[in-house]
Amino acid sequence: MTVCAAMAMSNMTVVDIHTHMYPPAYIDMLASRQTIPLVRTFPQAPDPRLILLQSEAQSLEEARDNPAAKPPGRPLTSHYTSLQQKMHFMDTHHIDISVVSLANPWLDFVDASVSGAVGERINNDFSDMCRLHPGRLFFFGALPLTAPLETVRSSIDHLKGLKYCRGVILGTSGLGKGLDDPNLLPIFEALAEASLTVFLHPHYGLPNDVWGPRAEEYGHVLPLALGFPMETTIAVTRMYLASVFDKVRRLRMILAHSGGTLPFLAGRIESCIIHDGQLVREGKVSKDRRSIWDVLKEQVYLDAVVYSEVGLGAAMDASGSDRLLFGTDHPFFPPLTTDEQGEWESVGMNADAVARAVGEGSAKAMGIMGANAIRILRLDEKA
Amino acid sequence: MTVCAAMAMSNMTVVDIHTHMYPPAYIDMLASRQTIPLVRTFPQAPDPRLILLQSEAQSLEEARDNPAAKPPGRPLTSHYTSLQQKMHFMDTHHIDISVVSLANPWLDFVDASVSGAVGERINNDFSDMCRLHPGRLFFFGALPLTAPLETVRSSIDHLKGLKYCRGVILGTSGLGKGLDDPNLLPIFEALAEASLTVFLHPHYGLPNDVWGPRAEEYGHVLPLALGFPMETTIAVTRMYLASVFDKVRRLRMILAHSGGTLPFLAGRIESCIIHDGQLVREGKVSKDRRSIWDVLKEQVYLDAVVYSEVGLGAAMDASGSDRLLFGTDHPFFPPLTTDEQGEWESVGMNADAVARAVGEGSAKAMGIMGANAIRILRLDEKA
Q: Domain named Amidohydrolase-related: which ranges (chains A, B) (predicted)?
């Protein structure tokens, strides 16, 4: 019996808190753009293509001129855009509730003059989708971070009023200077005040040269497997060192991919802080300071998208099994050798890691697979 | 009772496999250099200073011209250079055996025409030190990687003949292109053939811009706590993707800082490989392929320098408690508020993590604290 079949047979409510969609307003905006990122349809490809990277500019031009050229970017299959497909995926994997979010790069690139309006349309799209499946769908909204602070504040007010919104998805760039930027503090405060949880998700990775001259031989493994979690770890550590968690004590964040590598590195971070001459001289290492461990246990939740019992064990040891939340990362990592309409191995790996780490059907498993998310994100409040 | 006092009272043999020294031949070579890295003495500082970074060039010039200017670099205290100090440190912390190694940046910057000779002098220095304390000191040699292959091979032959040598310390640069460089294969083969274990240690970190515009406020925390382990993780993953472990099946590596973040990320690496279209198309994801988990359990050892029970737990789950090796990272991370001649908090943090993870005095603790190193590095063979 597969893990997903076991999920079906139990009474457990399964919640997927890490699952993405590009709603119609987002695709429309990308299709209308003349510069990357953008969406284009090519006669030589069945699905529209999402072109995200500046490095794809040349192949974009070639594909325009030559209908035989390999189209750039990646396909926007129905998994990215169709609500029906999302529901099918949920049913196939016995997922009762999904908290959907816009996939990267969110609104990070949108011109300041329009990002407020674009964000509002996208958030309304998500709200409409949730209304079609009451109780089965909730969402994390997108913030128009390129817009003036007042527009961002209005967006938070708007999200607060949307019945199925439970937080916002955030990249690590913030206003362009990272999440330790003091100009973000009023935004974090407004989010905390509105009880909107921040789902922190990577997009920018690490500079390409760290992967070395042979990187092209390794597909996307290095930037995806290492760059993404390292980006998240750096972003949160910078927030911690800038005392953001102390300054906005009610801020709550779900960290993608079980915190990147934060549970594993927290001890080293603490040791480096205690042993840093500059920080000690500046009086920043006081005895009553909250450690990164405190933050992990008090203001951070971790998703369980770590694909192993080993990683999950460390995540639990760091934050507590009551702060771990199952997720799938759908529609990323589709199966390559089996039918995309069937079970996805990537989902099974994460569900299986939970079962092996805490025992299938155990109270902890029930928590991680769904009950924690219901409690933390108030998914039993439908009104 | 402190952890170190408990170590003293037990019958356990304690081995420190991660402990550095700059022997006389290395300091002499650095003192004779006109370009960074170099060693200089300044009237305004009690100890000679080691200047490693190109970014310190300006403050080096200023300190030369102005005796009141803050001297660049970091102090080379007796902890870095004195054998007597190393023995005092070992006695204070009840360490029975140390496997010493040259600290970064090793010989990575040394001109090809002299690196062979410099390496030989340094390795002889280490050998001489070990001979003064038979059975208490062993060492990992340094390789003259900038020299021609034949010189590197001769260095390996030389090291193989040195009674107390048990391996080599290696950075992640290799011959300048990283450890997935095919030109390194004959060197890995020669090391494996000579039963010399590779101690892989970071030095290059990550590009500075990943730490953001406020990095200077955080001392050295970000590059040391995150950059170092991330560098190690990237280097080993590149080796794995280039099939180095399959090609040199007898290669054995100890990874500094418990593998950087490899135990935590191994699941994600495996998932990204299985789901990579390019690798699957190219037939690189065959069913009988050895996974990164296999390599962690068969060809990798992890030091226990991770400063937490959480990290240590993941390291054990990934590689097995019989492959974990206690280390101190001496003389880095000295205590800032207590006497350097007494107990070091950084050592206690790691010893304490072992005691808490597997139980003080347990068979596993005996293994991690010393017995594993004795078995793996043949530290009971004195001849």
A: 102-359
Q: Please give the backbone phi and psi of residue A197, each rounded to the nearest 5 degrees, phi first.
A: -80, 140
Order of strands, edge to edge, in the sheet holding B97-102?
Answer: B15-21, B97-102, B137-142, B165-170, B197-200, B253-255, B300-303, B324-325
* Contact: A349, B275; criterion CB under 8 Å: no
To the nearest whole percent, how much of chain A has pLDDT over 70? 97
CA distances from A227 to A203, B44, B375 (A): 9, 43, 36
List of chain B residues whose C-beta atoms are within 8 Å of the C-beta of residue A210: 206-207, 234
Other beta carbons within 10 angstroms of residue B137's beta carbon come to 23
For B291, phi and psi rounded to 5 degrees? -80, 170
Which tens digits make up the pLDDT trace of B161-197?
Answer: 999 999 999 999 999 999 999 999 999 999 999 999 9
Residue contact A237–B220, C-beta within 8 A: no
Distance CA A270, CA A247 (A): 19
- Interchain proximity A266–B336, CB inside 8 Å: no
Long-range (24+ apart) CB contacts under 8 A made by A129-134 are A129/A21, A129/A23, A129/A83, A129/A100, A130/A100, A130/A163, A130/A164, A131/A163, A131/A164, A132/A83, A133/A87, A134/A382
User: Which stretch of DSSP H or E encloses residue A50?
Assistant: strand A49-51
- The burial class, CB within 10 Å (0-12 / 13-18 / 19+), for B382 is exposed
Which residue bears the tokens 């603490």? A270
Measured in angstroms, the CA of B266 and the nearest CA of chain A are apart by 8
Hey, what are B20's tokens?
């550095």
Upper half-sphere CA count for residue B146 (Cβ side, 13 Å): 15
Helices of type H across A134-227: 149-160, 185-193, 221
Q: Which chain B residues are closer than 8 Å to A217 by Cβ?
A: 241-242
A274 chain-B contacts, CB cut-off 8 A: 336, 345
Residues of chain B with pLDDT under 70: 1-6, 8-9, 382-383
d(CA B50, CA B63): 13
Helix axis angle for B345-358 and A262-274, nearest 10°, is 150
CA distance A166 to A186: 19
Q: What single-letter amino acid sits at A383? A: A
Q: DSSP letter for B350, please.
A: H
φ, ψ of residue A175 to 5 degrees: the values are -90, 15
Quote the CA–CA distance of B141 and A306 in Å, as a whole number: 37
pLDDT tens digits along A322-375: 999 999 999 999 999 999 999 999 999 999 999 999 999 999 999 999 999 999
